[in-house]
Specification:
By secondary structure, the protein is mostly helical. Helices cover about 65% and strands about 0% of the residues.
């Protein structure tokens, strides 16, 4: 299963890079509406979620639980978490 996450993250990095190139091209061509749409897509894509999870779980604090008190140890947990991440359903801060 380790290979699956590695391959997914490699593809995600490629997808993210291509998206950044499309944003730069749209700005060069003065298509600001297209650039704005692509900028919104960049952090909201599934590949961005995979890259964020990889970044969080590969640094020296990988064994420290987050605000949800969960530590993702296996690749299966990491991929399942990526599919569960969404912008809705978070309790208000405070």
């Amino acid at each position: 299963m380790g290979l699956t996450l590695t391959v997914s993250c490699a593809k995600s990095g490629t997808h993210s890079k291509k998206l950044r190139m499309r944003i730069a091209k749209a700005v060069r061509e003065r298509k600001h509406g297209k650039a704005k749409a692509l900028r919104w897509l960049l952090p909201h894509s599934y590949s961005a979620k995979l890259l964020a999870i990889r970044r969080v779980t590969s640094d020296k604090g990988r064994y420290t639980p987050g605000v949800d008190s969960i530590v993702w140890n296996t690749n299966r947990q990491k991929i399942a978490t990526a599919s569960q991440l969404n912008r809705r359903g978070y309790p208000p801060p405070g």
